[in-house]
User: Fold these one by one.
Assistant:
Number 1:
Amino acid sequence: MSCPHISGLAALLKAAHPTWSPSAIKSALMTTAYIHDNSKSPLRDAADRSFSTPWAHGAGHV
């Protein structure tokens, strides 16, 4: 099993939302990335300290 934690989260989402399609579950998992740090400041790119873009901070929280 390559990613049991993601499979488990998908199963929990499916149980909570039985009408959601596999694409909707994937979207819910992939659109949960944080855009602010713990001090509510926008995330910065580690390479040059500029404000990060969606490509710099990733696709999902898990």
Number 2:
Amino acid sequence: MYSEILVPLDGSDVAECVLPHVEAIATRNNAVGITFLYVVPPLDMPLVKHEFKSRIESEAKSGAKDYLRKLVSGLKYKERAHGQVIFGKAADSILDYAAENKMDLIVIASHGLSGIGRWIRGSVADKVMHESTVPILRIRASSPRTPFYKEGQKMVVLVPLDGSELAETVLVHVKELARQFGIQSVDIVLLRVCELFSHPHLHYPPPMPLSWEEYLKYETKKCKEICLTYLADVRKRLKKEGLNIRLEVPVGSPAEAIVEYVNRKAVSLIVISTHGRTGIGQWAFGSITNKVMRGTSTPALLVRCTNQ
């Protein structure tokens, strides 16, 4: 599935936190090509003469090329990697390059360094994650620099679902990850949050009058039954692929419950849709997925889903 991977870098150690994760993918798939993209921003110096501006830009481009050349030369998979330097606004250039060159995946750090010539902290990655139609592997710069997969260790992949077909479009990526890293090396956790008193977990007429405590217990039981039934159906479909799957149904509000689960359990990778229920609201950026990204440092594969 991932044959062409784009890795934006800005020359900082922070942005390079993605490299162990890129290596994990590249060493498991000998057919994948890696493009390291360095975007040189335009100079905002209107009072500088054109010839001086051109010289500065030329030197910046030359420095970026040297940086990428040195970086690529030290990689284990250097024969399948190359560097590319372009001028432009960082986020827009990354998005355009990915679309024009038919990239399958963008691997990006969620922070860069502020200052001249570097990404303003978080803003570039945020825009790319918000607007990209290409799947994004988001790596939190503050997380430990260990890859989400290590040879000989189990990779635990958390897949939050909300019951919608749109959210389920991430499953094709889950299956591909399992195939690439080895089905027996990957444990998949399907998770659906039991959100009490919200659609569709609402209006279960109790068989008899109950106290508030009894009613809450009744609602929780019914809600978890609906979630487990749904997840069991998804597991049944995935079992045909021979995947190792377990089910989890925490109770609470979706974002908080997912974050709490990730921070409490040993999760290697989150695979999550950037849209859910309606395709616009519940799991759109700014809502659940965004809160999960801000609340966890675990690597996350973000897959944009649409109604189209």
Number 3:
Amino acid sequence: SSEVGQDPHMIVWCPADRQVMWQQNHCGIFRSTNGGADWMDVSEPEGPANFGFAIAAHETNPEVAWVVPGVSDIMRVAIDNSLCVCRTEDGGKTWQALRQGLPQGSAFDITYRHALDVSGDTLAFGTTTGNVYLSEDGGDSWDLLNHSLPMVHSVEFATI
């Protein structure tokens, strides 16, 4: 177990296994497998998956989570001005940067705490620059749904 850090940006759990929790905070990305009693730092020190605000957990697979990384709390923009979503499929041991369909230059977007949601293999997130993206393949590729909104603070799927 490691130091949990400070200022949790977002804490989520896997609905299929409520003992598995994920957390984004000022010090990185953390995972608990015992309901929050202990936390392991699963950040990617040399990669993009180490700071951000939003995190989402897969509904049925406790090993899978997504984050939308940013540079830092002081510099709230996409890393290298290229937007990506990072996914782990092994409980945070490794992270994959998913970029297909996302802007790879002049991207000053960041995603706040409640602006990322998942439902099955469908994900959506909104950004501080008013963009909303949708993926229907677990994050492998993304489509821009809207680019003219005000700052997006929350995205959530609803069952009708």
Number 4:
Amino acid sequence: MSKVTVKLNRQGVAKILKSPSMRKAVEKRARQIATAAGPGYEADSMIGKNRARASVYTKTFQARRDNAKRNTLLRSIGAARRG
């Protein structure tokens, strides 16, 4: 068998990672995690210097306490993997 070599177009990859559709995709996953975590958790996204990114965070004191006791955000990541 012959060896296959793949050379990525760095500018093209960067363009894809910073595209509005990529932001929409990561925001969708973040919202799934926030929804699975429950009330008091919110999601936000932005296009940074190198790529689109999203975060899920606690918005209320009750959510902060819930996350500290039960590790809710970490446990909710599975919701994004399934969806």
